[in-house]
Amino acid sequence: MTILYKADPERGLIWQAIFAEHAPDLPFLIWPDIGDATAVRYLVAWQPPDNFLELLPNLQVVFSVGAGVDQFDLRLLPSHIPLVRMIEPSLAEGIVEYVVLSILATHRNLINYIGDQRRKQWKSIRLVPASRRRIGVMGLGVLGRSALDRLKTFGFPLMGWSRSQQVIEGVVCFSGSEQFRDFLSACDILVCLLPLTSETRGILNRHTFGAMPRGAALINVGRGAHLVESDLLDALECGQISSAILDVLSTEPLPENHAFWEHPGILITPHIAGMTQPETAAHVLLDNIRCYQTGEPIEGMVDANQGY
Ligand code: NDP
Ligand code: OXD
Questions:
Q1: What is the widest separation between alpha-carbon atoms in the chain?
Q2: Is 271 among the residues known to form the active site?
Q3: I need a labelling partner for 11 at 20 to 30 A (CA). Which of 18, 54, 114, 208 fits?
Q4: What are phi and psi of 65, to 5 degrees?
Q5: pLDDT tens digit string along 240-254?
Q6: For the segment 147-193, what is each residue's pLDDT rounded down to a tens digit?
Q7: Distance between CA atoms of 66 and 90, rounded to whole angstroms?
C-alpha cells in the first residue's frame, strides 16, 4: 500500500516526514522513485505522470495536490478510481490573503500609483468609499466563500455567482447563465475563483467585460484559460476595464515577449495566490485515505461529469 507523490520535491520531503511519523504503514514515495509500481494505491500529484493508469495498475485513488483538477483528463479516469481535490486550511488562507490584497490594491488605485511613481508624478485620485465599491466573486466554493467571508469586514457590497443557487449571509448571490449579466452589471471589481471546466473556459471575455460597469476591474485567481487575453487587452485599451491583477496565465511562465509584462494596467504574479502547505495538507490526505480504507466519505471528491 504505497503512496506516490509527484509535485514539488522540496515540499515532498515534508509530506514524507509527516507520513513516516503518523502513518508508518503507508510508505510515501517521491517521484521519480516509484518503488514497486504494483504496490502504489494512491497517487498524489500536481501534474500526473504520463500513462499513469498503465504505470500503476493497482491504483485506487488519485489526489490532486491542489484545489484545481484541470490538469487531469477526466475522460481518461475510469469510474472506479475517484479523483479528489485538495481542501486544506492553509491553501484557503493564502487565497483569502491574495484576494483581500488585490481588492484593496485595486480599490485604492495602487496600480496607478505604481505607474505615477515610476514617472515621478505626485497626483491624487479621489477616494471611493468601500460602501460604494461593489465586489463580485465568480465561484462560491471553498475558496470563493472564504474570501467573501473575510471581505465582509471592509464594508464593500458583496456579490457572488455560482452554478447552483447559494445562500450566503451578507452576499447577494446569483446563479447560472440566466443571472450572469445581472451579476456582472453589479460588479465594480470582479474576482474569478472558478474551476476550469468546459463551461468556464474563456468565460472572462469581451461579452463579460461589456456587461460590467465601465471602468470595472478584474482579478483572476482561477486559471489562465478562463481569460481571453486579447479581449482583456481590447477592454483595457478602450477603458471598459480599468485594471487587471492576474495570478494565473494561459501559458505559465508567461512568455518573455507577452504584452502583459509591460502593460501599465496589468499586475502579474506567478501563480502564487494559494499554495498547498504540507504541514496541514498531509493530515487532510491521511484522513481521506483512512476514510477511503474504512468506506467513509472522502472530502473533496470530484464529480467527473461536472469537471470540478
Ligand atoms: P470549489 O469546487 O469548492 O468551488 C467551485 C465553485 O465554482 C462552486 O461555487 C461552483 O458552483 C462554481 N462553478 C463551477 N462551474 C460553474 C459554472 N459553470 N458557472 C458558475 N459557477 C460555477 O472550488 P475551490 O473554491 O476549491 O477552487 C476554485 C478554483 O480556484 C480551483 O479550481 C482553481 O482553479 C483555483 N485555485 C487557484 C489557486 C491559485 O493559486 N491561483 C489556488 C487554488 C485554487 P456550485 O456552488 O453551484 O457548485
Ligand atoms: C491549486 C493551485 O489549484 O495552486 O491549488 O492553483
A1: 66
A2: yes
A3: 54
A4: -70, -25
A5: 999 999 999 999 999
A6: 999 999 999 999 999 999 999 999 999 999 999 999 999 999 999 99
A7: 11
Name the nearest CA neighbour of 144 among 157, 153, 135. 135
User: How big is the CA angle at 306 (ends 305 and 307), to the nearest 5 degrees?
Assistant: 95
Ligand closest to 300 (CA) is 1
> Which of 221, 228, 229, 249 shows the shortest CA–CA distance to 106?
221
Centre of ligand 1 to C-alpha 138, Å, is 8
Q: Is 80 a catalytic residue?
A: no
Residue 168 phi, psi dihedral angles, 5° rounding? -130, 125
In the sheet that 40-45 helps form, which strands lie side by side, from edge to edge? 28-30, 2-6, 40-45, 61-64, 83-84
Domains of the chain: 2-88+276-294 (3.40.50.720), 90-268 (3.40.50.720)
* Helix H or strand E encompassing 95: helix 89-107
Whole-number Å distance, alpha carbon 95 to ligand 2 midpoint, is 10
Look up residue 21 and give its three cell numbers.
511519523
Cell numbers standing for residue 41: 494505491
Task: Compute, in angstroms, the gap from residue 142 CA to the centroid of ligand 1.
Answer: 8
Q: DSSP E strands: which ranges in the chain?
A: 2-6, 28-30, 40-45, 61-64, 83-84, 135-138, 158-162, 172-175, 189-192, 216-220, 241-246, 266-268
Of all atoms in ligand 2, which is nearest to the CA of residue 276? 5
The pLDDT mean for the chain works out to 98
Distance CA 105, CA 118 (A): 17
| Bridge pairing between strands 135-138 and 83-84 | unpaired
